[in-house]
User: What shape does this take?
Amino acid sequence: MGYRVAVVGATGNVGHEMLKILAEREFPIDEIVALASRRSLGTEVSFGDKTLKCKDLEQFDFTGWDIALFAIGSDATKIYAPKAAATGCVVIDNSSLYRYDPDVPLVVPEVNAEAVDGYTKKNIIANPNCSTAQMVVALKPLHDRARIKRVVVSTYQSVSGTGKEGIDELWNQTKGVFVPGQEVAPSVYPKQIAFNVIPHIDVFLDDGSTKEEWKMVAETKKIMDPKIKVTATCVRVPVFVGHSEAINIEFEDFLAEDEARDILREAPGILVVDKREDGGYVTPIESVGEYATYISRIRQDSTIENGINLWCVSDNLRKGAALNAVQVAEVLGQRCLKKG
Ligand SMILES: NC(=O)c1ccc[n+]([C@@H]2O[C@H](COP(=O)([O-])OP(=O)(O)OC[C@H]3O[C@@H](n4cnc5c(N)ncnc54)[C@H](OP(=O)(O)O)[C@@H]3O)[C@@H](O)[C@H]2O)c1
Assistant: This one.
């Protein structure tokens, strides 16, 4: 016996990936439904070799459904996730709405799979921000060996992190640069994203940081260890899919770069590609459609006593959202619901 699974936001980038990954990983499904807004009623989406017709979320009754994978914005999530959860359906949510709620577990299965058990308080489990998810996958095995004190991270985040509109803006602006009369003014982003980089993601906070940067700090503490200090600079770059991060890590104990490389090679969810030669590292384009979080450029930071630098790349629609959500559903099934 498998599960009855609802994919909410099935017409979106993350929704598409969730449907693909559920099929790829042969998640035990008895029945699946694709939900989106009324605008998308009847829109066809693929699930393996099947085609599903989208239903209207507003009209949908979650009674009798086991798991709902949500990938819609926070505003719509606020309306529909509690409704779904109240019927007994377990919501796994990609928005930021519940991530900091003490009654909602925030889970990256490679790091804190056991936290899933806490879903019972609200029937909701939160997925972290895309840049946090890949970073904690890289940090956890190193923290277990040498205890991380502080992390300095700079991100290079793709436009798919902003949803369909971000992708369209980069595409249209890029074309507009070459076609006279078709220039596209910034609307999704505060400045031109084509052939540019923007050191600003989400809203500004009082201390001069942005909400995206704050998320990396708060979520790393919740998922891994509240003692870890994180300082982040989040930057939007003209890449369609795949987030990259330059990460500097300071440890309590000394960790040699060779041992760090060996630890990361053995760690779940990670592929190390680290040849000190031209092209001997991973770039975001190579991460597209993959499950792995790739680690390259592992090297000692000789300016501090116990420091390591590394480069971390992953498909933000997958490990940063859809894959993580499906992995959480797998853990939930194995540890708690026990069907399939
Ligand atoms: N992209 C990433 O890297 C990433 C990573 C982590 C988390 N997330 C989060 O995942 C969520 C979805 O992101 P995305 O990139 O997939 O966005 P997207 O491509 O813009 O898709 C948005 C989806 O939400 C649906 N939706 C919007 N308002 C709705 C409403 N009122 N009722 C029902 N459905 C509604 C849309 O349906 P229609 O097509 O019918 O409008 C569409 O299916 C967001 O909360 C985002 O913050 C994204």
